[in-house]
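Long-time lurker. I teach an intro course on protein structure, and each term I like to show students one example going from raw sequence to a predicted 3D structure in token notation. This year I'd like something fresh instead of my usual example. Would anyone be willing to generate the tokens for the chain below so I can use it in lecture? Attribution to the forum is fine with me.
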Amino acid sequence: MNPKLLALLLLGLYVKAQDDTENIGNDVFVADDEVTEGEDVFAAAEEEVNKEAASLPTGTKEKAAVSVQIPFFFGEDAGPTWIGVTSVIGIIWWFVWGWFVYLPQNTADSTMQFYNYSSGVIGYAVPISWFWSNTQNPTMGWTSAVYLSTFLGYLLIAVPEFIFWIMFLVNAEGGPWLFKMWATWPGYYGCWFFYLFPIIFAIVQMAQNNGDINLPGWSNSIIQIVMHLLYMSFTGVVHIMALPSLIKKVDEVMDPSYQTRQEKYAAY
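-- Reply from a regular --
Happy to contribute to a lecture. Here you go:
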């Protein structure tokens, strides 16, 4: 090949490579400029959002933060009230269905009857005085177990929660912590465990009757199953839904700086 022609060819390739390099460099500079412009736009938007958040009233900022953390209809501060109300209903259930109410099957049902030898008349006992000595009753022993498990279960879960709720309301020493602890652990999990026993024992009593609706304990077992199932479901769902609000409210009472931190969080 002619040396001059070869030299011209190499020179042309070199010039082409230089042009490509310059074009790539220009593209990089353009991309850098676009990134810089994007960062400026983002910074301006963030500054605008911060200004708007700072101009909001304190209550509005708190609601913005709470709406993210506690997305349910109970309200941002209503958790303690809802759980406290369930404990009040639990106290009522404890007295009504654990102490005083037995539904006789018919007029021949003598489960709660007793004979007063001094006066010679037949009287009627209430379950709270009857079930202690009838756990070994061959026909009504499971009904006795219903009342015993109701008495102990509600005494262990609902009664302390009610007491700690009152301590929280009056801001007694240790009250907020006790209320939060009890609602978070024994109240949250215990309601699904301890309140299940009266239902199970009532079902066993009905099974022992072999479907004979004329035998004592049948109607009473049905009403016990319905009432305990309703309350167990209600208090269980309320604890699940209202516990985040309760924890937030109690933390505000125990640590005043908690609310300040929430306000700062809401600003972003």
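Some talking points for your students: The chain has two domains: 3-55, 74-266. The longest strand covers residues 113-116.
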